C-alpha cells in the first residue's frame, strides 16, 4: 500500500519543523526526509495508534518526499508489510517525529550539519 498524496504530521512535529526551518533555513520537506531516514537508521519501530495527525501542515507527497518517494515507501512496506494506507501515513509521521526529536533544539545550520 502506498502513502496517500496528502501527507500530514502531528502538531508537535509541525512546530518542530517550523522552528528548525527558522534556525537552519532548510525546508520542512528536507528536514522531514532527514528525520525519517534517521529514525530508520536507528531501528525505530512505530507502535499503532501512537500518532494523532492533528497538525495543520498538509503537503503533497511528492513535495514532502521528492526524489526519495519510492525509497521511503519501499522502506515502509518492508518494515510494515501488513499496514493499510492510513497506518502507513501514521508510521511515516511517527518516523519523522522520532527522527527529528534529537535535532529539534538546534539553533543553526552549523549545529544541524554537525549533528548529522
What is the 3D form?
globular
| C-alpha Rg (nearest Å) | 13 Å
- The percent range for strand residues is 5-15%
- Tell me about the biggest sheet? 2 strands, antiparallel
Task: Please identify the structural class as seen in this structure.
Answer: mainly alpha
Q: How many beta-strand runs?
A: 2
CATH topology: Arc Repressor Mutant
Count of structural domains: 1
Give me the CATH architecture, please.
Answer: Orthogonal Bundle
The top-level CATH class is Mainly Alpha
> Which oligomeric state applies?
single chain
Query: Poorly predicted ranges (pLDDT <50, ≥5 residues)?
Result: none
Classified in CATH, the superfamily is DNA sulphur modification protein DndE
- Which H/E pattern describes the elements? EHHEHHHH
**End-to-end span in angstroms?**
30 Å
